[in-house]
Amino acid sequence: MSKIAAIMTDFVEDIEVSSPKKALENAGHEVVIISDNGKDHVDGKKGTVFSIDRSIEDVDVSSFDALLIPGGFSPDQLRTDERYVNFTKKFIDSGKPVFAICHGPQIFIQAGATKGRTMTGFTSVRPDLENAGANVKDEEVVIDNNLITSRTPDDLDAFNKEIVNALK
To answer: What is the set of active-site residues?
Structure first.
């Protein structure tokens, strides 16, 4: 069983949390939802309330086997906070699996983790990734070593399959 860190804040895309979380848990893994200190929940864009398990101040990459970054407006907010940027960069540098969907890859830009990497993201995010040096594909799932990225909720079946496979 692997322990997966899921970083998010308010206005996260609900289904991009609940669907991968369910797939990972059904495969026997634990998903730990991480957000700001003092928060007990995160509100999804569509009204889902997600309970916070840990604060970003209290976690370390060494305690987790993988990182999940769901989309929505959450990643755009997280990328302005060095705690989340550094957490993401340490994960990528560690070689541990990093899963990002929709707007999730935005945080890779601030983490300096795009140059020469192949990835995808939501339509409006792909030009930003390309401008930051990524090789961008318009495909439902793109795997580049430890990075697994996807475009939209429509791609969740393929995304979930690949993230579960990465932890086998």
So the answer is: 102-103
What predicted TM-score, i.e. pTM, was given to this entire model?
A: 0.97
Please state the domain extents for the chain. 3-166
Residue pLDDT, tens place only, 120-165: 999 999 999 999 999 999 999 999 999 999 999 999 999 999 999 9
Beta pairing class for 118-119 and 135-136: parallel
Given CATH 3.30.70.20, say whether it is the number of domain 3-166.
no
Dump pLDDT digits (tens) for 75-106. Answer: 999 999 999 999 999 999 999 999 999 999 99
Q: Please count the CA atoms within 13 angstroms of the CA of 29 that sit on its side-chain side.
A: 26
